[in-house]
């Protein structure tokens, strides 16, 4: 069972089943203008029949797809780990939030409805919530399967078609989703995967028959996607980067705060957009907190991500590893103390010795003006900062161009909600971090983007509202009997 999907892909997609470090796992062709045009053409045809189905009918297909994902959980998770490098343990969690997303939007598909408004003289109006048409999803490499599901499930539930482009660093797992959708009963071409990098992404954003673009990635690329979409007056959803604050007050449950700080920094080797990398700790507990954080970080098992007990695999590629290590170097140069980690890691297993591993890093003596505190590192690097008062920490936490997420650990209920209200972010976690139930909207403030994924509200980002006026009397014309 475990490698059935992998084997199928080996046959169909020239995927090479090998676990050797630095070996090629797949050779896929980039889609050019011709392939993008073809995908859009087929998506338009599929859209015609899919958009005419009732919400209940669409719901059944999504539920079947969710069931198949659940059934193939281990195979998909294995593939995701080979695709991305994150531990199998985490890939399984990602597969769970993926099928849950399909189930959630299957549940909402039949509830898409407008309203009826009574008007003067018996006339009335009503609104219809209609799909947009062919939507494009462009994904980042850190949560490849999950991103494909988080974008496609609401889009398809609303009656749209979707063309999805995964990151060229992680091209494989979105193909599994396409296969599952087709087997579950979606018309061919309704969910189409095109492969490639910037050029393919541009063809998609610029295509006149594309109605909407939902993008997950960096701020500079998000800016380009928005510019291209603006030329075609296309709505966009932008899920961009972050430099999120995690605020730990001295009245917190310290054990939970320490666990929360690790979850906020080290999932997927720290390559998570909403990570709470600026860890503000109130002066009274900073020594106890730091000691415990270092102890727990030292215990994180780094190595072969396909092993059951591994919790940290390699980073995505060599240039990115170098970039992350560069941030640690500049932090030291700017006066921060590397309390633990932050260096290249060579696993004992000889087959992994060229892997892109590093030890998770704890930086202390950080100042707000340091590069490691201002810029998104997108790696396992936690910066610990000390604070004294609530007002002070709120000002410092909000002094960032980003606004994706934040966390607050405290036992004071009023303070927790006061702080949550003041933070300029799209998601605020109280006494936890990086939990992402699909029922809750997720997205950014400020330069972290706009639009939301997950939650009921996302239906609005994948549909448009039509108003229908119905006259029950006669037309009163100002041009009559002049
Ligand atoms: N807010 C969120 O939900 C998330 C945000 N991110 C952010 O993404 C970044 C890391 O991901 P990367 O894949 O390196 O980002 P990236 O911006 O380099 O690439 C993202 C996607 O855009 C495509 N692309 C590149 N140039 C394009 C262009 N000119 N037109 C259209 N598409 C283009 C890429 O091929 C890829 O599929 C980080 O900054 C991170 O914070 C990552 C995951 C989640
Ligand atoms: C699942 N979660 C909350 C850890 C991360 C989701 C956003 C991302 O793709 O980085």
TrEMBL record:
UniProt EC number: 1.2.1.19, 1.2.1.3, 1.2.1.46, 1.2.1.47
Superkingdom in the source lineage: Eukaryota
GO function term, MF aspect, one: formaldehyde dehydrogenase (NAD+) activity
Signal peptide segment: none
Pathway: Amine and polyamine biosynthesis; carnitine biosynthesis
Compartment(s) where it occurs, according to its Swiss-Prot or TrEMBL record: Cytoplasm, Cytosol
GO CC terms in record: cytosol
Annotated active site: 239
All residue ranges annotated as the Aldehyde dehydrogenase domain in the record: 22-468
Keywords assigned: Cytoplasm, NAD, Oxidoreductase
Record-linked PROSITE patterns: ALDEHYDE_DEHYDR_CYS (PS00070), ALDEHYDE_DEHYDR_GLU (PS00687)
The reaction(s) this protein catalyses: propanal + NAD(+) + H2O = propanoate + NADH + 2 H(+); butanal + NAD(+) + H2O = butanoate + NADH + 2 H(+); 4-aminobutanal + NAD(+) + H2O = 4-aminobutanoate + NADH + 2 H(+); formaldehyde + NAD(+) + H2O = formate + NADH + 2 H(+)
Recorded family membership: Belongs to the aldehyde dehydrogenase family.
Oligomeric and partner information: Homotetramer.
Stated role: Converts gamma-trimethylaminobutyraldehyde into gamma-butyrobetaine with high efficiency (in vitro). Can catalyze the irreversible oxidation of a broad range of aldehydes to the corresponding acids in an NAD-dependent reaction, but with low efficiency. Catalyzes the oxidation of aldehydes arising from biogenic amines and polyamines.
Name used for this protein in its record: 4-trimethylaminobutyraldehyde dehydrogenase
Organism the protein comes from: Neotoma lepida (Desert woodrat)
């Amino acid at each position: 069972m475990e490698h059935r999907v992998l084997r199928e892909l080996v046959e169909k997609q020239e995927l090479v089943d090998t676990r050797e470090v630095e070996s090629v796992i797949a050779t896929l062709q980039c889609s050019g203008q011709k392939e993008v045009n073809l995908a859009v053409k087929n998506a338009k045809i599929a859209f015609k029949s899919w958009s005419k189905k009732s919400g209940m009918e669409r719901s059944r297909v999504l539920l079947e797809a969710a069931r198949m994902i659940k059934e193939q959980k281990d195979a998909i998770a294995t593939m995701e780990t080979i695709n991305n490098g994150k531990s199998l343990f985490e890939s399984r969690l990602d597969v769970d939030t993926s099928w849950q997303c399909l189930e959630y939007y299957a549940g909402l598909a039949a509830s898409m409805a407008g309203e009826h408004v009574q008007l003067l003289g018996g006339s009335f109006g009503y609104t219809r919530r209609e799909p947009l048409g062919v939507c494009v999803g462009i994904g980042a490499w850190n949560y490849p399967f999950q991103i494909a599901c988080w974008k496609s499930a609401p889009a398809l539930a609303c009656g749209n078609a979707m063309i999805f482009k995964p990151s060229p660093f992680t091209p494989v797992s979105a193909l599994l989703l396409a296969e599952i959708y087709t087997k579950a009963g979606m018309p061919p071409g309704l969910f189409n995967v095109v492969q490639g990098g910037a050029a393919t992404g541009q063809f998609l954003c610029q295509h006149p028959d594309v109605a909407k673009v939902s993008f997950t990635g960096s701020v500079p690329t998000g800016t380009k996607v928005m510019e291209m979409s603006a030329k075609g007056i296309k709505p966009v959803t932008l899920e961009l980067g972050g430099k999120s604050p995690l605020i730990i007050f001295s009245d917190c449950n310290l054990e939970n705060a320490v666990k929360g700080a690790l979850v906020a920094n080290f999932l997927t080797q720290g390559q998570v957009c909403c990570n709470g990398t600026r860890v503000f700790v109130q002066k009274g507990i900073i020594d106890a907190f730091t000691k415990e954080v270092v102890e727990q970080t030292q215990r994180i098992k780094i190595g072969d991500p396909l092993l059951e007990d591994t919790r940290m695999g390699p980073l995505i590629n060599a240039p990115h590893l170098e970039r992350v290590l560069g941030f640690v170097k500049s932090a030291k140069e700017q006066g921060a103390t590397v309390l633990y980690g932050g260096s290249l890691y060579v696993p004992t297993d000889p087959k992994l010795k060229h892997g892109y591993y590093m030890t998770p890093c704890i930086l202390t003596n950080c100042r707000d003006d340091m590069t490691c505190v201002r810029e998104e590192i997108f790696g396992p690097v936690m910066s610990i900062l000390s604070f004294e008062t609530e007002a002070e920490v709120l000002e410092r936490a909000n002094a960032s161009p980003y606004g994706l997420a934040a966390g607050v650990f405290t036992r004071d209920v009023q303070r927790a909600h006061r702080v949550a209200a003041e933070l300029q972010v799209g998601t605020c976690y109280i006494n936890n971090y990086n939990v992402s139930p699909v029922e809750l909207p997720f997205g950014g403030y400020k330069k972290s983007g706009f639009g939301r994924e997950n939650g009921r509200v996302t239906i609005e980002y994948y549909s448009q509202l039509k108003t229908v006026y119905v006259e029950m009397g006669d037309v009163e014309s100002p041009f009559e009997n002049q």
